[in-house]
Amino acid sequence: MENLYLYFCFVFFIFLTIKLLTRRKRNSPPSPLSLPFIGHFHLLKIPLYKSLATLSSKYGPILYLKLGSMRVLVVSSPSAVEECFSTNDMIFANRPPTMAGDILMYDGRSYVWAPHGPLWRNLRRVTVVEMLSSTSVQKFSSIREDEVGHLVRHLFEASAGGGKVDLKYLFGLLTTKVMLRVVGEAAAASDKEEEKMVFHEFKSLFFPSSVMNMCDFFPVLKWIGFQGIEKGLKEMHRRRDEYLQKLVNGIRLNTTLAIPNPSFIQKLLSFQEQDPQFFSDQVIKGTAQMMFVAGTETTSATLEWAMSLLLNHPKALEKVRAEIDSHVGYNHPLNDSDLANLPYLRCVVNETLRLYPPGPFLMPHYSSEDCTVGGYEVPKGTLLIVNVWAIHNDPSIWDEPTKFKPERFEGISKEGSKFLPFGLGRRACPGATMGLRLVLLALGAAIQCFHWENVGSDTVDMTPGTGQAALSKDIPLEVLCSPRPDLTKLLSQF
Q1: Which of 66, 258, 327, 428 is 20 to 30 A from 115 via CA?
Q2: Are 422 and 395 in contact (CB under 8 A)?
Q3: In whole angstroms, what is the distance from residue 442 CA to residue 299 CA?
Q4: Which residue in 92, 122, 99 sits closest to 109, CA to CA?
């Protein structure tokens, strides 16, 4: 018996040796030294986007990492991004399997998280063509103008009481109310306390959290209930689903036959009547959830960063104001149709998005088959991370990348893979136009109507926060505002 055991060990040893000697060495991207079990986790620090940028500067813009059981490709150059989302766009069109995706995303019945295939293509057609096309976005201009008017009224009232305002809260309230009306036709709250309650409930449910957690990299942690992550996600899903189902049911009961400008949920309910099997309540709730999560905190954070940058660069602020005064004047508030005549305002917003992209990484992608990137072999089942922050701050790509220079965008309509605040390829953010319109309108109206100055020190603290999905300021922006004398009569009309 002992001889038989030794014989099998010998045969296994010979087989393993032959396998190792004949195995083709994979041409993998550069990679640091990894540790058993944890891989490269020991090299990561907070904030993650800076930590990965540091590793990429040492090992190259195409970097391979092993994070627990997950293979990860980190790209931080325009050429690598272009290759991932052009040549290999189909291969990287999927999302990775994650605990949050499984629990929160209605079994993939959401355009953002659906696996690439027929379901995703149908959801894309509905989301991009039917709901977020330029024509549809234009139809919601009255909602944006109405809610920006409420923002101006808040600021005008605050200016009479000393002028100190919390712009983080007001911008968050603005984006929440716009999204509630666009998606669910919610009536605008008229009472400030009611507004505050609506905002805080919405924020607790939909302001984004990370789409990946430690259980995704170490699946064994799921079975021991690590840090209660799975339990917390299930409770979050229960609360979100209850909120969304109540919203859908309320709109279903109150929907009339003829609606000139229906909300997203009203449109989806009309589609449900034509095809109830595809347009289930799960699809409707998944779409609404996507809009709420993706379209609120990212937009409000961009507004806060933009105003902070302008306060720290008064010459740019005055240039924006002069452009608005020249093209809009003092007799009517800035509206959606004015935005095309304000190119420098758009440059300011683009430069804000370059310095402080709403997401320092693109949403994660996942390879469906083997491919090559930059001449390196990337195996099937690899997580793709695009470090947008690193590309936007690369001195080999941008002149003086750490400086606020809106003029760099003058005369440029598109920056391609150098400028990625909304992603690239078939899974780029479909709500980019809607988000940009709101940022431009709100920022422009605030500059048109008020003088602004920082509270306390001469400059605004620009330290980013940590641990958030969106790149937000660490210290909320509190400022002093006062009505511009030439706009007092106009302001009294709000």
Answers
A1: 66
A2: no
A3: 11
A4: 122
Q: What angle do CA 56, 60, 65 make, to 5 degrees?
A: 60
Spatial contact of 289 and 244, defined as CB atoms under 8 Å apart: yes
Task: To the nearest 10°, report the CA torsion of 169, 171, 177, 180.
Answer: -100
**What is the helix, strand, coil percentage profile of the chain, to 5?**
55, 10, 35
182-203 pLDDT, tens digit each: 998 765 556 788 888 889 999 9
Residue 403 lies in a domain: yes
Q: Which residues is 402 bridged to in the sheet?
A: none
C-beta neighbour count of 299 within 10 angstroms = 27
Using alpha carbons only, how large is the chain's radius of gyration in Å?
Answer: 25
The answer to whether position 190 is within a domain reads yes
Can you give the CATH number for the domain in which 199 is found? Answer: 1.10.630.10
Question: Quick one: tokens of 239?
Answer: 């609360």
Angle at 227 between CA 224 and CA 228, to 5 degrees: 80
In whole angstroms, give the CA distance from residue 118 to residue 101.
19
Q: What pLDDT score does 246 carry?
A: 94
φ, ψ at 35 (rounded to 5°) = -105, 155
β partners of residue 94: 366
- Is residue 430 domain-resident? yes
Measured distance CA(428)–CA(422) in Å, rounded: 6
The residue range of the domain holding 468 is 39-95+138-206+295-491
368-389 pLDDT tens trace = 999 999 999 999 999 999 999 9
Q: Can you say whether the dihedral through the CA atoms of 313, 314, 319, 325 is positive or negative?
A: positive
Among 50-54, 186-190, 413-417, 459-463, name the most confident range.
Answer: 50-54
Q: Which of 49, 146, 158, 210 is nearest to 450 (CA)?
A: 158
Known binding-site residue numbers for heme = 429
335: left (phi over 0), alpha (psi -120 to 50) or beta: beta
Binding positions:
429
Reading the block at residue 153, the tokens are: 């009224």
In a domain, 376, yes or no: yes
Residue 97 C-beta-side C-alpha neighbours within 13 Å: 8
Does the pTM exceed 0.70? Answer: yes
d(CA 67, CA 421): 25
Count of structural domains within the chain: 1
